[in-house]
Fold this protein.
Amino acid sequence: MPFSTKEKRAEYMKEYREKNKDKVKKQSDEYKKTPKGKKTSGIYNWKRRGLIHDDYDALYDNYLKAENCEECGVPFGIMGDGSGTFKCMDHCHETGKFRNFLCHACNIKRR
């Protein structure tokens, strides 16, 4: 059976990635540092973890703007700063629907 152009392209890209692992990794790492790369990576991770939303672009914009926990009002810190106040994407684990931007402590309480 002859290969379609799509199949040929997929095979070529697979071979290219295998032959150029370091180059591809470097390009990927650089892209993930750009604003578009951060957004793409963030939304991908939300979806991978089961978060469901109608408009991920709007959700991402709101994520960037959120400064305080919607439950307790504490200002968000940075993950790893030891405060436990970093921003979490609270969602229902049964339906996957997004609910709120919460600090880690409030997100743990809600489970």
